[in-house]
Amino acid sequence: MVEVKLGAATATRIEESYEPNFDAKVFFPDWTPDVVREHGAWMSPNHYDEASGWLKLSIHSWLLRVGGKTILIDTCVGNHKSRKHRPKWDMMNTPYLDRLKAAGVTPDQIDMVMCTHLHVDHVGWNTQLEDGRWVPTFKNAQYVWSQEDFDFYKALDADPQKGPANGGSFRDSVLPVVEMGRVQMIKGAAELEDGLRITPAPGHTPGTIRIELESKGNKALFCGDILHHAVQVYHPEWNSFACLDQDNARKSRRAAIEHCAGSGALLMPCHFGAPFHCHIDHKGAGFAPRFANNF
Question: Which of 140, 154, 191, 205 is most deeply packed, by most CB within 10 A?
């Protein structure tokens, strides 16, 4: 279990899955064999499976304890959910909640759930199946996400030609929480208590946010899918196949990387391979990740 001290705060990684799960050439349209020749030494085996040519991406949450609050950032895919568009995620049955308990927290002890955006692999554990209904998993939590994302996917979900939105996750992992009145939707930037700040980072989705923390001089940036893979630190111009607004995705990624390189903030992604987080250094005219095991 990875635990990161951030001043008076602590962030603990709660794993759902960690395996080769996307063909690199499909995931990144700009991927070429040159990438492996240049970066293979550090990418394999934690970030890339050379035998298959697939990216090794983690899917995890960050459990943040700060100021007496217990906060869960991004909630993965979830169990028992039909995801036919992603076979590896279809009807999953992982010990995610057991891992949360191993970190010392039960679902009822979560005070806040923050979703960086509303894609299927960031909202799944928002709900669980109970007596045939999808109900909030974290019954005492306030759920926080962007108004822009909700409005966009609500309209998409209602379109008979395009819905259901996000492989059905909008209906089984987002709407039930809204119907229970557990959501605070943020529009634009917001200052939360305990050194937390929400900054809009549109591009991957219309309402993607980044979550910034400062505690006793220590800084961190929880980036969701602004960056999926550490190779994007070297190539901020690279978008994944899932980025809706290509230009803004690049701008938001570059801004996040520059923020970390300039401020010393620790980058806390949801999909990087081990060691799952990094600092970012300037390297010539670009940037390079500095992983925790190199401190």
Answer: 205
